[in-house]
Amino acid sequence: MLRRLFGRQQEKTADDVRIEESLQKTRSGIFSQIGSLFQENEVSDALWEELEEALIVADVGMDTTVELVESTRARVQQEGIRRSEDAYLVLKQEMVKLLEAEEPLQIEEPRILTVVLVVGVNGSGKTTTIGKLALRYKEKGKRVVLAAGDTFRAAAIDQLQIWGERAGVDVIAQAPGSDPAAVLFDAIRASQESRNADLLITDTAGRLQNKFNLMQELEKIRRVAAKQVHRAPHETLLVLDASTGQNAILQAKGFEEASGVTGIILTKLDSSAKGGAVLNIKKQLGIPVRFVGTGEKLEDLAEFEPVTFVEGLLGE
Amino acid sequence: MFESLSDKLQGVFENLATRGRLSERDVNAALREVRLALLEADVNYKVVREFVGRIKERAIGLEVMESLTPAQQVVKIVNEELVKLLGDPAPLNLSGPPPLVLMLVGLQGAGKTTMAAKLALRLRKQGQRPLLVAADIYRPAAIAQLETLGRQIDIPVHNEGTEVAPSSIVKNAMRIAREKAYTVLILDTAGRLQIDEAMMQELEQIRLVARPADVLLVVDAMTGQEAVSVAQGFHERVPVTGLVMTKIDGDARGGAALSIRQVTGVPIKFLGTSEKMDGLEPFHSDRLAGRILGMGDVLTLIEKASDGISEEDALAMEERLAGGQFDFEDFRDQLQKLQRLGSIQDILKMVPGMGQMARQLDGQDLNSDLKQIEAIINSMTTQERRLPSVLNASRRRRIAGGSGTTVEDVNQLVKRFRDMQKMMKQAGMLGDQRGTKKKRRRRRQREPDSEGILASLRQGRLS
User: Fold this and answer.
1) Do B81 and B107 share a structural domain?
2) pLDDT tens for residues A283-305?
3) What is the residue range of B138's domain?
4) Is B251 in Cβ contact with A246 (below 8 Å)?
5) Containing H/E element for B36?
6) CB-based contact B145 A163, cutoff 8 Å
7) Does the N-terminal or the C-terminal CB of chain A have fewer CB atoms within 10 Å?
8) Is residue B63 part of a domain?
9) Which of A62, A155, A213 has its CB closest to that of B141?
């Protein structure tokens, strides 16, 4: 129904199906409660309060929750909507509007070499996600090289190499403990020369955004990239665990300041977590979600599509 | 980033002329702030509701004590209830005949592998003979990670590759432990979703084989509202006996600990900080409570400070300062006490509102500066320390040589010291104008308990 509202008649893509499937589990949770709220109740004050509660439980965050509810409420009053189902649709529209990216993703722009930097806190799923990205773009005909920029965590390089092997792409690595900026430098050289690659995806060590030194290291990595390749990194993607709570906004802010985050990859969306934090991040920082991770297999990565995401969360 | 709860409550109560007893209206206004603070800290919504209900019961009709403002009073109650809810810390269960088994379970990326190594190191320090068991056969290079960590801390790792079922690996590891007299086995299981039926069955099988003394649920401090379903999901399938919270060195408030504790009743056993192998802290309910409320870790600071400095020392120092008698000996004394508290950054992090500053200073080696200053002072003679005016060029050269610094360093220190002396004299005079020393001492006696100090710290001013 929402699809019609937004004038989108195209068939569901494989990505859409994947997101929906992964969100099936979530539907039995709180967001389906939102759905039933709107179906059963007349539009009333109690409804708004319960809706607010439901959004908070999805980790959307206080401020964004209040604003979402307020804008929905204002529209419902303005347009004289009585039926709760219609109010429900308004909420979906507001959420989709909020989540839509203003700029297209830069990875597929024609370029001699595109450099993508992948950053995030420890354990968010960076290395796994890079393996998935590598496969996706290799299948799209890109010549992909991975840079093993996490030289700190034990066996992180091995982990990336295994993913590289599975995806069938080259991995440029140095010994554990070496300077990640140097690894990237090497990888850029190799991509341009021997490997003849046009997409370089760089892994980085997980770091907490309040560690000043480690965030400085990211800035250095960026500088090295920018010196070697015009306007690189072309995308800096923050990997965010869907189960993250209010810290998500601090993560986005911290990494945005240090490394100029251009997009979010929301991982572990196959869990019971809702990933509502991305609404908050988009609202406050304007950073769009680009991909969602929906499982542990190499192909479990989908392009983020707001309509599908919201429909998956709330039910159609 | 976060305004502390007491600041917000202060705002609430400023608008109410509260004297005597707290009315229901006062309390309701305050509780809204409490509710928001807890939600911002990622405490589960339902847990918050119950919790706020309990606070309300306690707070209504409460007499406002003279020494505390209504805001402090509410904070005090909230803090007490939080501490109670978080419960007492529990040690690892090491009773029973060896080899004992500790089993780590949790979601992907929670930090199980790192935590396994940290626990192994800690247990060895306690005289145990730990064996790490690589039971994560799914994540690429998970075994290599555990092997690497094991090598770093020199603790053996049992590993059978990725083709053997985890329960068989565990069975074999237990046999080896008996043969080679290892006393504790630490099982690093694969990260899994609590809704993944096949993987949860695997966990049940491992548990049946291992019969663990402790099943520790490893939870990321950044976890949001989901923490409750995750904990319940694991607890239903493999009864969890302890909670370990990781990445507590980040800036997440860690409200998930409270939610999990509340819904499972399982005690919190450890907090994981940093990626270093000794980054493992025992859990203190009062400190975590403060963190959840966004108050900084004031209690730890107070504890550290009172360890370092006695009341009499402080008073004697105050009088010397006021009298302008502060010399290099006193200065060195203060420096040493300061260093006993830990790094400057760590101290700042514990003070509410100073986290940002600590972040800016992070990485600058302030403590080595302090060491250098101490070295310079140590190279002085007693006379030079007591009477810095005798420091001529030749003496300064000698001090620089003796402390491994340059004459410029010595000059700078002497200059800064003089400025400091001047400032202190002025401050002392100011103090005398405002009130006599006696009065100041009386104020100190009125708030001798940590509660009072805490309250004033929360207000952002030290008495």
Assistant:
1) no
2) 999 999 999 999 889 999 999 98
3) 100-283
4) no
5) helix B24-40
6) no
7) N
8) yes
9) A155
